[in-house]
Design brief:
By secondary structure, this protein is mostly helical. The protein has one domain (48-236). The protein is 75% helix and 0% strand. It has 9 helices and no strands. The protein is elongated, with a radius of gyration of 25 Å. The chain starts with 7 loop residues before the first helix and ends with a helix.
Length: 238
Amino acid sequence: MNRREVTQGELDRLIDAQELPQLRADRLKQIESAVIADLRPVRPMASDGVYVGALAGIFIAICIVSCYLIAGRDGWEALSNLQRPVVFIPLLAIASLLAFSLVRQMRPAAKYVRTTALFGAGVFILLIASVVLIFHPMQETAFAHDSLVCFRAGMMFAIPTAILFGIVLWRGAALSPALTGATAGGLAGLAGLTVLEIHCPNMNVYHIVVAHLSVVVVCALAGFIFSSVTFSRRWSNH
């Protein structure tokens, strides 16, 4: 009989059939003391709604502060009545999906974690396709320079958002750090992308794909790598 053919009931019977030596009462006390010596009460996590609200609050606060106090709303004014819903409705949907997935990842054995994250990634791909369809190529004399400026601006808002998300996530117990890092990074990148879409009046499709949408991809990859490396080092030190 190989290992895969052993059922839980058969395993219990095999264990029960073994004759284990009897331990003295004082020895049992020593084992019990060693087990419970470092046990501490665990503070229960808040409800999913609280954490979703916290993530949403951080996301919205970053966008409001950056757009109304720092960056401005030139991009919003430059968008047509068709382009605004095509851009911002998917952005809202992706952010909601990633926030829900992120909160579920904080709880061990939660459902719909990977499915929701993958669905959010699928909607992001649809967003890219929509941008390619409704925006058009334009001549730019300083394409590389302007793209780098926008990319840096997006990252400037995405990085503090990711740090604030990390503070919230620290309350949970994610069992897949790489997925959690990628999801948090992607959500932080969406904050940077939202700021750029509201601020930047450049309607060149190449500029939007290269300088704006790439912020989400880079942040998701950075979150994946950072969480994977951090988790590996933590286990190697134990």
